[in-house]
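I'm stuck. Please check this protein.
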Amino acid sequence: MSAPTLIATVGASTANSYTTVATTATYLNERLNVGAWDTAVTAAVGGPERALIMATRRIDAEEFTGEPVSPLTDVEVGAGTATQALKWPRWSTLDDAGWTFDDAEIPLIVQRATMELALHYLNEGTTDALADTGLKGFRAVKVGPLDVTPVPGFSAGGLPDHVARLLRPVLAGGGSMSFRASRS
């Protein structure tokens, strides 16, 4: 199996990743416990590309503040209208301090969340990290007589805590809505 083509061009109608393999390698070079990434890179079968594409797809399943700069590719628009494949870049999206992110770039927090989630997926091994068994929301299931005990506060398909923390400022309903004012 060959490596998929990773397209990390900001705002492209064919983009499938928020970051590149090279950028991720540089980022992970300063992090501990990256053996799964190193193994995927040396295996030369597209593991890093697949992990970044999969992480980007999962992150794009979230709802974010602001609006995409261009209509999303999967939305029907008029001929000649530029579209973007991914939810980022976005207009009117603020960081923790109330500053607006540059709408011509992918915010560093989104890139880092993508890199961390890709590493998380590689660390999961052969388990399909996106597969939902349907039973993860239960502490116990008993068949006869039926006894089902839900896990309190369970969110199916939730992001790992460290990834969710990175994205918190830009998640719809997850960040602060403050604005920075300046005197002229």
Remarks:
- The two ends are 59 Å apart (CA to CA).
